[in-house]
Design brief:
The chain has about 55 residues and is α+β, with helices and mostly antiparallel strands. It has one domain. It is built from three helices and two strands. Strands 1-2 form a two-stranded parallel ribbon.
Length: about 55
């Protein structure tokens, strides 16, 4: 970021530490995966995602 580059952070837990949040002014862009999924998925795709069980359990 010191070279004038933009850094993109994709978060999954919906919380970002205050130290990272302070870097937004320096060029850090933060995106919440949940919000992106809600924006790009069709409603029928969302139902399929929510109904799948965790393969690990």
């Amino acid at each position: 970021m010191s070279d004038g580059k933009t850094v993109v952070l994709f978060v999954t837990a919906r919380k970002v530490s205050s130290e990272l949040n302070e870097l937004r002014g320096a060029g850090l862009r933060i995106f919440d995966i949940q919000k992106i999924r809600d924006f790009i998925c069709w409603p029928r795709e969302m139902k399929a995602i929510k109904s799948k069980k965790d393969p690990i359990s």
